[in-house]
Amino acid sequence: MTAQTKALVAADAACARVAPVWPLQAFVAVNPYLGMADLSLPQAAQRLARVAGARTLQPRSVYLAALDAGEIAPEDLLAARAAMPGGDLPADAAALIGLARDLPETDVQPLQTLVDLAGDAGGRAWSDLVVDRISAHAASVFDVGQAAWARPVDGLYAGWLMDARIDRTPDAAGLTGLRAQFAALPETAAALVEEAAAELGLQGEALELYFHRLMMSVGGWAAYARHAAWQAGLEGRSDDTPLQLLAIRLAYDLAVLRANAENSALHEAWQTAAAAYAVSDQPARALQLDCLLQTALERADARRLARDLEAGSAASADATDIASPSPDVQAVFCIDVRSEVYRRSLESVAPQVETLGFAGFFGFAIAYKGTGEEARSARCPVLLAPQAFVCEAVPSKDVAERADLSKRMASAWAAFKLAAVSSFAFVETAGLGYLGKLAADGFALGKRADARLAAAPPALAPSTAAGEATGLPLEQRIAAAEGALRGMSLTDGFARIVFLVGHGATSRNNPHAHGLDCGACGGQSGEANARVAAAVLNDPEVRAALAGRGIAIPEDTLFVAGLHDTTTDEVAILDAATLPASHAEDLAKLSGALQAAGRLTRAERVLRIAGASEQDIAARAADWAQVRPEWGLAGCSAFIAAPRARTAKVDLGGRAFLHTYDWRADEGFGVLEVVMTAPMVVASWINLQYYGSSVDQRVFGSGNKVLHNVVGGIGVLEGGGGDLRVGLPFQSLHDGEREAHAARRLSVVIEAPQEAIRDVIARNEGVRQLLDSGWIQLFVMDCEGRIAARYAGNLAFEDWTDVSAPAPALHREEAA
């Protein structure tokens, strides 16, 4: 392999270490450690500290407080120590606690780049200038319609090179000599990477580490570039956008090196810095200790969860001793943690309703286009590519013409507001015209008009739109329906109404609004999937085919679509006017239960919102100045795949993803494999996004919402410049006085035979990597609802039957 090829291999490896971020219009939770799945927590923490100055653990004070409160038992510390072979930590619980009190935390500092060194020598923050120049260019290239004028040059690197050769901004700031160097750079990103690698003098892992450091210096835009490559991969295309961004950032370092060819001090400083990149990534002792404490804290939480689930299973077993009638309604909610609260409320006010949990796209991986929408949107988890394109039914001619006219008028008005000749005049003359709307929204005075509740039904019959195939052929409908029902473990015992509840969120003036919608629906609300699923499952041809496959749906069973607004906890029955009169009484009873459950859920949720009351909930959703309309998935820490009886009697506090799964009905364990490779992985993405945004807002969060400025229609800057911000805002994690999310890696509980779980892990390298590296801890539940085993890595399990029992606390005086 040539040196040039090695450079590109190192570049690709560095780019793959960066997790993607989705644009605001499809904002979904992403595991910020996605590129670190092959590394353990200590290894990833050390690497991220070196390439980004990132924190990966909580402050030491959090762990000490848990120890003092008795939340972490000696057994938790010892088990965590046993799971970290090697290192330089004592094997005694008291000694570990003493070390935690005495050993200072790690001072997290990133490795230096050539631009950093040049800035240090001149007493200037040249790295900030470089980030600003790259950010301005990337914003113009990635813009999706916010800018009034589009860039004429294709290609991230080519456009930057053209601009950089004439850009005098660095000269004006005092960073001189770059333009002359840029003029001599190669015309392609790959050639630039090879040329720079040869000149920097780095080899092997040190070169990859340096490339990773450069990518993380513009980490937000690197994440967005990775999104372009991710999408291309789903569509079977190749995309080198991350490589082009790396080449741009690398070009600044190469230009600084060449412009200072006679500067011996800089070259000596670079030799010292380069040597640091070749040093092993062995985690520091303090970092190892904090990783151990985090692991112990998570094991302690898992013990408490196991105890609660065992008690809940016993309570459910006692309740089933009394014969209970078949349910009138089976309500299928998204596995989202917010549904856990509502499901408990609904079951308490309506015992005749049975609730189930399933991914919110209901197994229909579609792209969807509503009436009046200019473009379709993916309505499926970002791990998947849409398998079909569905449009809403075409409205009548006069309705369509009015919608088209309204759309064109809105577009023209927006263009006028943004035009250079009218922007200031517009504010002066029309600004007061918005005062009434702002007041109405701020005080919730206006009528709530949710267009999602009044949309046209989906058009399922195969057709074409703009020359593209739309709809779902019969065979595809049958396959999706069977997959959905088997995935829900709902293949018999159907109720008279099966209520498919998608979810979305209401908020105003919120760039991250889609982050509150359904992640299983690609960061969109789930009403489209619920409508499509209900329509397919009500199709007589589909039902006839399902009967031949062993799933007999009674004639009087009606599938009904619904939408849960997670901000207001109102659940609407969609398309109610089109439902048959034969079920009107059943639907009226369900509607009353939904309203009662909503009131109960709001009363519980409002306790988490400082200074709020149940009456404030609707106002918060409509308030354009509200930075915390709801808490989203804050608190998420567990994923449970089991029959509802295991969790129905347990208050999980809105912290658990609940997936209905009955392994006895899963012949061949195909459903188990889907659960572990899709919903479980997506839940870990969500969990780790909250974790990363909590432990390091600077690197993996998006900062203060009050300071956000939308850039390019795709993301936010914090203030007027700097890097694109990724992850969750501070206000989604903290109420100003206390944290709303406790940083824990996901605990997964699955009721299934241990051997079947092992087989799934063995067949799926990505899942095994997450488990073996400890990003997810997996527990096996037995047939009596007890946690029987914990996955210990390398396809082995450890007994857990005695671990869930309460353990004695180790108090300060004992540790001393």
Would you give an account of this structure?
This protein is 46% helix and 11% strand. It has 816 residues and is an alpha/beta fold. The protein has three domains: 3-33 and 111-277, no CATH class; 60-104 and 284-324 and 633-816, no CATH class; 328-621, no CATH class. Helix 1 crosses helix 12 (204-217), helix 8 runs parallel beside helix 14 (241-259) and helix 11 (189-200) crosses helix 14 (241-259). The longest helix has 36 residues, at 285-320. The protein is globular and about 85 Å long.
What does the secondary structure layout of this molecule look like, with pairings?
Layout: H1 3-16, H2 41-52, H3 60-68, H4 74-82, H5 93-102, H6 114-122, H7 126-142, H8 156-164, H9 169-173, H10 178-183, H11 189-200, H12 204-217, H13 219-234, H14 241-259, H15 264-277, H16 285-320, E1 329-334, H17 337-349, E2 353-358, E3 366-369, E4 377-379, E5 388-392, H18 397-418, H19 423-430, H20 435-442, E6 458-459, E7 463-465, E8 468-470, H21 474-487, E9 497-504, H22 527-537, H23 540-547, E10 558-565, E11 570-573, H24 584-605, H25 617-622, E12 638-642, E13 656-660, H26 670-677, H27 679-695, H28 697-700, E14 708-711, E15 715-718, E16 746-751, H29 754-763, H30 765-772, E17 776-781, E18 787-793, E19 796-799, H31 812-815
Parallel strand pairs: 1-2, 1-9, 3-5, 9-10, 12-13, 12-16, 16-17
Antiparallel strand pairs: 3-4, 5-6, 7-8, 10-11, 14-15, 17-18, 18-19
